[in-house]
Design a protein that fits this description.
Radius of gyration: 33 Å
Number of strands: 7
Strand content: 5-15%
Low-confidence stretches: 1-23, 533-538
Mean pLDDT: 81
Helix content: 55-70%
Largest sheet: 5 strands, antiparallel
Distance between the termini: 106 Å
Order of helices and strands: HHHEEEEEHHHHHHHHHHEEHHHHHHHH
Amino acid sequence: MKIIHAMGLTLLLLLTTLSSSGAAEADLRAIIGKFATAADFSETGAVVQELTATGDPAVERPLAALAEGNLYIRTADSMVFVGKEGDENVQLFDPLSGEAAGEASADDLTQISVNNTLRRTIRDALGTLTLGSKDPTVRIAAADTMFKTPDAANIGPLDAAIASESVASVKALLEQARAASVLVSDKPDPDKLAAIALIGTRGDRGAVSLLTSVEANASGAVKEAATAAIAHINSTLAFWDAGQNIWYGISLGSVLLLAAIGLAITFGVMGVINMAHGEMVMLGAYTTFVVQQVIRTSYPGLFDWSLVIALPLAFLVAALVGLVIERGVIRFLYGRPLETLLATWGVSLILQQAVRSIFGPSNREVGNPSWMSGSFDVGQLAITWNRLWILVFALVVFGVLLYVMKRTPWGLQMRAVTANRRMAASMGIRTPWVDALTFALGSGIAGIAGVALSQIDNVSPNLGQSYIIDSFMVVVFGGVGNLWGTFVGAFSLGILNKFLEPYAGAVLGKIVVLVLIILFIQKRPRGMFALKGRAVEA
């Protein structure tokens, strides 16, 4: 008997729930039906407010459709539908469930019109509804929207949302949104002073913008508090701006390190001024483009692996081209730096024209894999994933190259040739092949630098020209042939550039950096980290 009694109670509870759910849906449909009788924008706005007051997430669909101009009234029976225009007729969907409800001719429908004021009302209504979403990210977005568009009408819904919020970070954002709404309400000054104090802790430019408008319209203690909060936030933002410039400088330094590290090897070991080094970077970028094109057309599921696949291929392509250049041109010009410079400049022009002939002169699209897309914030710092991964990649390349130079027999031979070429040759080291393989290594590293640069720059035949001058400045400033000098030089020049740009502009900033390097070289002709050996003796 107890089991039967329990089953009866369960059935009764289920029926009660279903009946209340059906009644709630019927009430919503009745409110939505009022759109058909609304005579003007104000009456339509009243229906929007009535739907919002229900707090039911199901009304998001019709409200969003109304904001986009996709809510229709069927003339025959005054029923309201969400519509989607087709080739001939308008496809109809139920405004609550979203289920298909047939189609109708445009002549048989009346589109519900909206104006900008009504759109703002709908936007605020949707923000209020999303406060009750189960997804924290949706609630965060709603709080952010309400902070940026404060309204005294939001205080009540925000109070209810704050009371039920269990996630501390989301609750803090809701409290800030409420404080913003308090500032535009007729609340007493003590409430507004507390709101200003709370918004001051937010410390971003959105808070400054809001407090500036409050400062302009307030008086007395509220105005003074807003002024003090703005001054405090601006001082904090100045600190974060300096941090942002440092991050931009580190990011630029990682790019310069990748572009210059191969040049540092060839210049240090061989004494060759390779004006075609930028074109090795370009070849790496175009290799990435070709790899992505093949993956897009034949293996789209592998797109997120496209850069991993492109890295060894770019290294091989650039290294082989570099080996051909060294064996075919440069080995006949050792000891003649001017002729080497002119010859490699000619090679760079040939490579640029070859790429133009094959791929065309316009920029080519190289996509970002999902793991290199987007950004995240650290305090007030905005950090993009592609720049962060390029920094990590540059440090890995530097570490691997340092290991090769210091811990492998080939690295020992390269350092021996750098220190004293004649003595190295007398010890049985085949210096011509050391030169060839060194040039190929430097070119290959430039190729993988092109893979990274394809993620942040335009892939075009002129890509390499954007970095060749900066690469030479890094190498000369850091010390010819010294990897640690290249490392320090790249990041030093990157940070210096980004601190000068806000004051002098991008072009003038580079000129100032060049002048500073010239003055520095006058004092230390061999750079920060002078390399002892053949380069010094020469």
